[in-house]
Amino acid sequence: MKVEVASLNLFFLQSTPAPPIIIPMKKQPFRPKLQNILRWFVPIAATLAFAAWMYISPEGALGKLDAIGYAVCHRIDARSFQIDERQLPLCARCTGEFYAAGAGLIFQVFVSGKKSRMPSRGILAAFVLFFLAFGLDGGNSYLYLLKQTSRGALDHIPNLYIPNNMLRLFTGSGMGIVLAAMLYPVVNQTLWRTLDDRPTLEWKSLGILISLVIGINLLILTDSPMALYPIAYLSALGTLSLLVIVFSMLWIMLMRQENTFEHPRELWLAALSGFTLAMLMLLSIDLFRLQLTGTWGGFPGMG
Q1: DSSP class per residue in 252-278
Q2: Which of 73, 96, 227, 250 has a 20 to 30 A CA-CA distance from 29?
Q3: Is the pLDDT at 9 greater than 80, yes or no?
Q4: What is the model's pTM?
């Protein structure tokens, strides 16, 4: 009986067709494909954007710096420092703001490394004072400009004081320190897989940075070309650096690459993408403003 049952089971096993074996198609991950495409596309886009901007911008090294400042600053001649009667790429306030921001970022790279925590509450309170000074002097200066160009329409509104380039420089550089100090920990929190959970700035390091900026400001106020030429470069390149950093962070978030980097050399594609977007922004604003005003100088009628 057992033999018959075994034979019967064997018969059914042999006669029943085996289920088809489904071999899944091997799919290549989408992200590596996208990365490979971008490794070719981004450098080409960066080259084209930079070449187009170089073509439309004024001649000479200072002319190129002017074209950077032209996209973010009013560039009013009377509110700018001069090198032999040639205005700097940015006005006095923007010169202070963007050179100090660039210097602050460089300072933190060497002093703070991968520290990623925001500064203490005391330092943040000091930053609030810097911001208020920037806003107060900027508002007072703007009111003064409106009164100069409105032919008496705003004379009933008193100015707190007569604005000047020295105050614009110091309040602008204070704001630049704030920008660098607030941006640096955000960058570290976005980039690195392993973070150093300490404040990016302590009172001592902040004091050194402020002292450095005050010293540079005093050199600028001498009106010496030996000081103004480097500041022209540092302020314009500081402007470009901030734009590149912000657009690079945006790129990393869009690619969902937050906290995936171990070494700065891994950032080249994100940084080049940020540079491309920054150049496209500068190119667009420069072309629009040039078409609107017809000049690479300050806005016509505002002196």
Answers
A1: HHHTT-TT-BSSGGGGHHHHHHHHHHH
A2: 250
A3: no
A4: 0.85
